[in-house]
Amino acid sequence: MIKWLVVALVLLWAVVPGLFTGYDPIAGVPADKLLAPSAEHWFGTDAVGRDLFARVVHGAVHSLSGAFVAVAVGLVLGTLLGLLAGSVGGFADTVVMRVVDVLLSVPGLLLALTVIILLGPGTVNVALAVGIGSVATFARLARSEVVKTRRADYVEAAFGSGGRFVPVLWRHVLPNSLGPVIALAALQFGVAILAISTLGFLGYGAEPPTPEWGLLISEGRNYLATAWWLTTLPGAVVVAVVLAAGRISRRIDELARRA
Amino acid sequence: MRKAGQSALVLWAAFTAAYVLLQLLPGDAILIKFQNPELGLSPEQIAQIREYYGTEGPAAYLHTLLGFLRGDFGYSIDTGTPVVERLAEALPETAKLAGLGFALAVVLAVAIAFASGHRLLAWLREVPSLFVAVPVFWVGILLIQLFSFRLKLVPVIGGTEAQQLILPVLTLAVPICAPIAQVLARGIDQVSTQPFVQVVAAKGASRRWILWRHVARNAMLPTLTMAGLTFGELIAGSVITETVFGRNGVGRLTEQAVSAQDTPVLLAVVVLAATVFVLVNLIVDLLFPILDPRLR
Known about the structure:
The complex is a heterodimer. By secondary structure, chain A is an all-alpha fold. Chain A is built from nine helices and no strands. Chain A has helices at 2-15, 52-88, 90-105, 108-119, 123-150, 153-160, 165-202, 213-220, 229-258. Chain B is flat. The chains are: A mainly alpha, B mainly alpha. Chains A and B meet through helix 3, helix 4, helix 7, helix 8 and helix 9 of A and helix 1, helix 7, helix 11, helix 12 and helix 13 of B.
């Protein structure tokens, strides 16, 4: 239950941040700088007197939209590649799986950095970089699911009763292979939020004063000795969202395997 | 032999893909570095520099590939020194961090997996899924905050080498131990329910004997595969950990290379990381028949 609440809450933060906080995420009140968390400022304030909770709430849209783009890129490209490899088989299968091997041989972060050096920094490019890094994972799972589904009796029957290749793939193979892939998408949503915050922390994502979560933690590093809340609380929010995404993924997987 | 050939093919493809991608770069490092009007370089001179670094055309690709095979990674555009020199400087530090981090991760994973089998410690099962959800850089920052600033156990700057290493190694071990612990715990569960375990128990073997001699030995195989697969995360984690703790190493080198668009350095780092990953997993593959008589 909690997992759904966490995700729903963060989605609402992204859509209507004004409902959750009255403070401005960009303009601070210098007199209120570096206040510890209190009833007034739930997450405390930063060095220029901005309410940290407001910055986290307004930052949700950056992390979530980035994660959506990343997962969409990985899901669409990966599933298409996996569908191609698993249904056509033969040479196409070999080529696609070799490409997947190559992509998996480079650590995700370095792959993302290679894409970033190419496209330049920025929120959209970071999301694309993370998405490209997840294509191989999606492709491998989609392929194994498609191979399994293709051998099912109802697919044989569809082909046997005169169904043509592409329509049968679209009507029977794809929908019945998607369950575990959707579960992976939920998991990758959390992974993408982690990766995006990491790249933001390293300084390749959003520019200050954007309240992107990784950047918030990076900015808080200068006040480790005096203001623990600046790094601890935004990080805790990231952990909660990633954990919830992982739990939801596990639940979808259970449902998909039971069906 | 076939597996070794496949691994070589994957590495060659990874090199080529990274090379081609990095060639597509619009604003290249040579322009960034030499375009400064104060240097007063003419376009012809910049073209000469370009030739010197060997960054143009298909001949350059072959040249670079042959260089990599000989262990010559070209020149860093940022500093003008050979990439090999910069790597040789950074590598020992990273190897130390990654090696210790991996060792600690394995110890932690084994401890978590075996302890969570105990009734009172079952809550440990949830620890790995928490560990994978935590940003590595945030763990590092929390550890600095707790042990350096609050408890003042580890100095922020200076200190002995062990003091400098302990927090980074802990940070790195967190994400690495989680998947290993998960697979090992699942393996122990699965093997424990198999009929042969009951047979051994019926013959009068003690619980401890069964656990170590039979269950652990069988559960080790998938764990070994997973341990090999974590090497990618190990390299990425080292990069992040070095940045958080301000350590000199491949992580720092990578960060500098990305901001200076120093493509030869990044190419070398990517290919090196892929090589380590592919080699480790090749070794795991080759070890399997030795460890599991059923596969011979």
